[in-house]
Design a protein that fits this description.
The protein is of the alpha+beta class. Helix content is 29%, strand content 29%. Helix 9 packs across helix 10.
């Protein structure tokens, strides 16, 4: 129920940073072998952080620009604390940063606790049925013409229909599709589907889809959020981390130095049967890191460090995807 973020943690509600980058890099075709890229033994990312504020930016987080709810939560927490319900009936805290939060140039530790209270709200069960394109249903509006708030709730629907077409499974229609969604008051006003659908049938990728909507009452747990100022500025926080947790990357062999400088230049390295690095070179560099406590340990196999090499500071993230002999040795710093 309680999760302070002032101590590095080995498990995180947030998705893995390197895995997100890995998928993006593979999708963009940034490596010579997409097959190997998609299934590496390990992944290393190296980012130069020459300024104290650069270090702090890596070591902090902030709500995504599109997440207005989380941004408001942070602002209210910093201003004196706030209570928030879970975003869904799964009961999870609505915002779970895995590291200190930056807000208006200041760094804060956020804490949250389950209050034991619950709050009731009305969500909507959107029940849709995908019909054959040759059926008698006559769509009144296309999916692309729906308000953005409705399209967002039904984002998977066009893909579901595409999959049905690609698998040549149209003979199995009609096909049900359901989504239970929360609409805040302003979005409810903008919606064409809730609280009552303005249209009985919509067209999605050439297929008529009928719509019914039913209100559903849910009970959501309430969480109390508080904030503690950690540093008055990003630069101050970066200096603190540099002083307490930076380690020098030294005693590398010529081959290991050449490898690390290659990763610096390219920004990333995907280890597997597809790479052209001599056996033992990546392992030799990785050994230097797992000997040091990590600043952040997101998944059991992934960690982040601050190191200094050849006069420059670097933020290094390694995900030992299939290298448990290294992953099992990752240890977090005692106190961040």
């Amino acid at each position: 129920d309680h999760r302070p973020i002032s101590v590095a943690t080995r498990q995180s509600a947030m998705p893995s940073l390197s895995r997100r980058k890995l998928l993006a890099g593979c999708a963009a075709g940034l490596t010579a072998s997409l097959a190997g890229c998609a299934d590496p033994d390990a992944v290393m990312y190296v980012e130069p952080v020459p300024a104290s504020s650069d270090i702090a930016t890596q070591a902090t987080t902030a709500p995504e620009s599109r997440d207005a709810e989380a941004a408001e939560l942070v602002a209210e927490t910093v201003a004196g604390g706030t209570n928030r319900t879970s975003r869904s009936d799964r009961g999870n805290p609505p915002y779970q940063p895995d590291r200190p939060v930056r807000y208006n140039g200041t760094v804060y530790d956020l804490d949250w606790n389950a209050t034991g209270r619950q709050q009731e709200r009305t969500e909507y069960l959107l029940s849709l049925t995908i019909h054959d394109a040759d059926s008698d249903y006559d769509p009144e509006i296309s999916f692309d013409e729906l308000p953005a708030v409705d399209q967002e709730r039904l984002t998977p629907l066009p893909r579901v229909i595409d999959n049905i077409q690609e698998a040549n499974e149209t003979a199995g229609l009609p096909e049900p599709f359901e989504r239970q969604a929360w609409y805040p008051p302003a979005e409810r006003e903008a919606s064409a589907l809730v609280p009552e659908p303005a249209y009985d049938t919509i067209a999605v990728n050439g297929y008529p889809v009928t719509v019914t909507v039913e209100p559903v009452t849910v009970q959501l747990p309430v969480f109390a959020y508080t904030a503690t100022e950690r540093a008055s500025s990003l630069a101050a926080f970066g200096r603190e981390l540099r002083s307490a947790h930076r380690f020098p990357l030294i005693r590398l062999s010529d081959a290991e130095r050449e490898f690390f400088e290659m990763v610096i230049e390219e920004g990333s390295f995907y280890k597997g049967g597809f790479d052209d690095v001599d056996d033992g070179v990546f392992e030799g560099v990785a050994e230097q890191f797992v000997r040091q406590p990590a600043l952040f340990t997101q998944y059991d196999s992934e960690a982040e460090w601050l190191t200094r090499y050849d006069g420059t500071d670097y933020w290094v993230t390694i995900d030992f995807v299939r290298m448990s002999e290294f992953a099992d040795r990752i240890q977090p710093v005692e106190e961040l």
